Task: structure prediction
Amino acid sequence: MAEFMDVHHDMRGITADQLRQAHQADLAIEGEEGVHFKQAWADPDSGVVYCLSEAPSAEAVQRIHERAGHKADEIHPVPLTV
Amino acid sequence: MAEFMDVHHDMRGITADQLRQAHQADLAIEGEEGVHFKQAWADPDSGVVYCLSEAPSAEAVQRIHERAGHKADEIHPVPLTV
Result:
């Protein structure tokens, strides 16, 4: 398992409820790909959302995000953490 | 205090030691601006580094990063977290 940070752009105006619902939609199906979405952070003004996950691959992360209705614009493995 | 996610590009090839040293350089002076750098994640292949902090402002985050020798390319407040 590796850690990934994925980024969504164009989420301007996202609310706390919408972020929670999007995260719940991921959590509901993440196990089918062996993914776990650990945390997400959103800036409603610029529309950027960051999601931190553990997953077998970036493709697995994207498959869950796509099925949940919010494809990521970037997905980076982040093997280094401090 | 608010949370911020800042992003550094062009850190290709960064090592675990370099990430740790950069983070330590931030921690050593962060108190002077009331900032706390909580965590950082790096992708040596694409060269992107994400830093999560608590701070009074994005400008305070940038002042610490600049003084520590690694100015951020983007700094986003992330008022929503899940």
The first strand of chain B starts at residue 2 and ends at 8.
